[in-house]
Design brief:
Layout (H helix, E strand, L loop, with lengths): L2 H8 L1 E5 L7 H17 L3 E5 L6 H7 L3 E4 L10 H9 L8 H8 L1 H10 L7 E4 L5 H8 L3 E4 L10 E3 L5 H9 L5 E5 L3 E11 L4 E2 L3 E4 L7 H5 L5 E3 L6 H17 L3 E11 L5 E7 L9 H7 L5 H10 L11
Parallel strand pairs: 1-2, 1-3
Antiparallel strand pairs: 4-7, 5-6, 5-7, 8-9, 8-10, 8-12, 10-11, 12-13
């Protein structure tokens, strides 16, 4: 596709990145990469940072469509998607409801369990919870997470009961509800999904091998110590099952356009467990969706264009 054709096809494009969430730093990296890639393909792309500019400014730009490269709250949680629906600006990724549910790890698990999809046992906690019951119900180790944060922010793996209170306090500092999740000992994987509904397709699986099994914020984005294997070295049956579950999990939440589903593969029996969904995955140099696309021969630039091509409004027009 020529640069002229691409520009004509998409019109004026806004790349939304930065924002106000705890993942702002990562979003700046993602968005910069997307902006440069789209410009390289001849798209009339422009940077827009909702963390520094208002919704009124966004409306005034008169974008024909936008690529959302925001992560976390106020960008991945449905709030911005609702504003874009009101402004009549087509956007990439999932709609308001899927983003809101996918951003909340507790509600994501509830939806998956309703659909009989495998995910670790869990409990929700607050400031008045009896923490001794957490160990009795879920055992140790246990993962303590703030349900509304991404990029492993505020997450603690607790191996000893005396460590539990500090972990809960950390997660509670980021929100009123805390998620305690049974720890699955095994290998860590992720599966990117593109498309919508019956047309949704899983990309090649990525295995993540972090130093000491600690795939934290630093090891995700700022070191080269984490190793990635794509396609993952697993048997065909397990690979097919994980890809099948990824599409089912993605569709159960109502996701569309693109997304990523994270897994743990239990060491004892090779059973895959769904961990969380990402409705606006990272697009940095270390990110996993571009890695999976490359395994199919899809360049970073072409991936960005394909995601942009899927941009649309998700809500039906009202009768006026």
């Amino acid at each position: 596709m020529s640069a002229t054709t691409t520009t004509t096809e998409f019109g004026k494009v806004g790349v939304l990145f930065g924002g106000r969430s705890a993942e702002r730093e990562v979003s700046l990296m993602s968005g910069t990469g997307v902006l440069e890639a789209l410009k390289a393909k001849g798209v009339d792309a422009h940077a827009f940072d909702p963390g520094e500019r208002s919704i009124a400014d966004l409306a005034a730009e008169k974008f024909d469509r936008v690529f959302i490269a925001l992560h976390g709250r106020f960008g991945e949680d449905g709030s911005l998607q609702g504003a874009l629906e009101q402004l009549d600006i087509p956007y990439t990724g999932s709609g308001v409801m899927a983003c809101a549910i996918g951003m909340d790890k507790v509600y994501t698990k509830m939806i998956w369990l309703m659909n009989k999809l495998p995910t670790p046992q869990y409990a929700t906690l607050d400031a008045n919870s009896d923490l001794s019951t957490v160990v009795a119900e879920l055992g140790l180790p246990v993962m303590i997470k703030p349900p509304l944060e991404g990029s492993t922010i505020g997450i603690t793996k607790v191996t000893l009961e005396p460590e539990l209170q500090a972990a809960v306090d950390l997660a509670a500092s980021l929100g009123d509800v805390v998620l305690a999740e049974q720890f699955v000992t095994g290998r860590e994987f992720t599966v990117a999904v593109l498309g919508k509904g019956r047309a949704a397709k899983a990309l090649p699986i990525v295995e993540i091998v972090a130093p000491g099994g600690n795939y934290d914020y630093q090891n995700k984005y700022f070191t080269d110590d984490t190793k990635y294997f794509c396609p993952a070295v697993i048997d065909d049956a397990t690979s097919a099952e994980m890809q099948r579950l990824a599409v089912l999990a993605y569709n159960a939440l109502g996701c569309e356009g693109w997304g990523r589903i994270d897994f743990m593969l239990r060491e004892s029996d090779n059973k895959p467990f769904l961990i969380e969904a990402n409705t606006s995955p990272g697009m940095t140099s270390h990110s996993l969706v571009p890695m999976a696309a490359r395994a199919l021969g899809i360049s970073y630039e072409d991936l960005c264009v394909e995601i942009l091509r899927s941009a649309r409004l998700k809500m039906a027009k009202g009768q006026g």
